[in-house]
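Let's study a protein:

===
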Amino acid sequence: MTPARIALYGFVGLVLLYLMIPVIIIVPMSFSGARFLSFPPPSFSLRWYEAYLGSTAWMQATKVSLILAVSSSVISTVLGTAAAYALNNSKSRLVQSLQIILLLPLVTPIVIIAIGVFFVYAKVGLLATIPGLVLANVMLGIPYVITAVLVGLRKFDPTQEMVARSLGMNRLRSFFVVTLPQIRPSVISGMLFAFISALDETVVALFIAGGENQTLTKRMFTALRDEIDPTIAAISSLLTAVSFLLVILIALNARETKPVPEERANGH
């Protein structure tokens, strides 16, 4: 192994360690037996996990976050897959230009989106409601689905769908029978990204969530502002574990997506 490669591996290792430091610190703190957050923990206990699971307020916030994440990821997947299919198959410049608009939530500062959503919701009465939270997170989740599904569609041989349509299937049926099964890993990856986005989203929730419809992340932020409760460390560890497992699922789905052979890609 050359010195340059050793230096590269060392640099990458340091970067990964830097990114992992918050997790390395917060997980042991979640098992602390102390009344306040401290590192290293003076003793170990499950008291903060028990406090989280035994709290009605925390459980209500968790329920809202799960309803929000599941609902918004499903809706985002349906709409994002349809949009990606249209973008991939249309030759219209107008349709192609819509891709930029659909991906704007990825590049627009989240606080600007939150302020805009707040003022719109204040006028239509959607503040502190589950439908309002779902709609906002659908907007944030669709770009992830579009990006993932477009990757799958561009590896898919469209002549297969054309053959199915020539045998009597309409466009909708040929999509579900021929196209969707082959781009399934990309669709699932997009849905998981949308789920993670909705589960971890904080800024928009701070503006539009409230009352009984507070998300878990907003309640965590409020708890940090009012009192540094070690329960937050336990919840953070659980959210990190869930996100980590979902990322593993995304990676496994990505491995299922096989590139199209060159002969098929060229129409031979």
